[in-house]
Amino acid sequence: MAHKTLHDIAEKMKRLDIAMLTTETSRGQFASRPMSNNGDVTYDGNSYFFTYDGSRTVQDIEKNPHVGLTFEGPKRLYISITGRATLIRHKPTMQQHWVPDVEQWFKQGIDTPGIVLIRVEANRIKYWQDADEGELHIPA
After folding, report:
1. Rounded-to-integer distance, Cα 43 and Cα 71, Å
2. Taking a C-beta distance cutoff of 8 angstroms, is the pair 13, 47 a contact?
3. Cα gap 7→137, rounded to integer Å
4. How far apart are CA 71 and CA 12, in angstroms?
5. What is the SS3 assignment for 119?
6. What is the pLDDT of residue 24?
């Protein structure tokens, strides 16, 4: 098992767009859904996703901010991230993570009514690629 740094993991994640975001529902079940990080893939321990306020995702995060992310990449790369989600409604912060492709879901950009940005701050990253696997803990 080779030891990887956050930089090593970030290099592998550069081209990974879709993650499965898992939350815990109000009934104690797990709900997963595909989320696009909108090409915002310069990974520094934080992942960002746009969604709508009032969505099941937002409701789940408001009740329990502990979430999971899973990514699958080329050459049998698998990455699992556990972390804490924060809901961001601050437009200047949203603008920093906005890319034009997101307009297909949010027609008015960051001025779309009800838009919210989810930030997932990692506390543990597990990775597997062929025989290489490991775990990285991110200090709070």
Report:
1. 13
2. no
3. 13
4. 11
5. strand
6. 96
Sign of CA dihedral 67, 39, 43, 110: negative
Which amino acid appears at position 71 of this protein? F
Q: Which residues pair with residue 82 across a beta bridge?
A: 68, 124
Q: What is the pLDDT along the chain (140 residues), one digit of tens a residue?
A: 457 888 888 888 877 889 999 999 999 999 999 998 766 566 788 899 999 999 999 999 999 999 999 999 988 999 999 999 999 999 999 999 998 888 889 999 999 999 999 999 999 999 999 888 889 888 77
The phi and psi torsions of 73 (rounded to 5 degrees) equal -130, -175
- Catalogue all structural domains in the chain, each as residue range(s) with its CATH number: 6-137 (2.30.110.10)
DSSP state of 107: T
Rg (the chain; Cα; Å)? 15
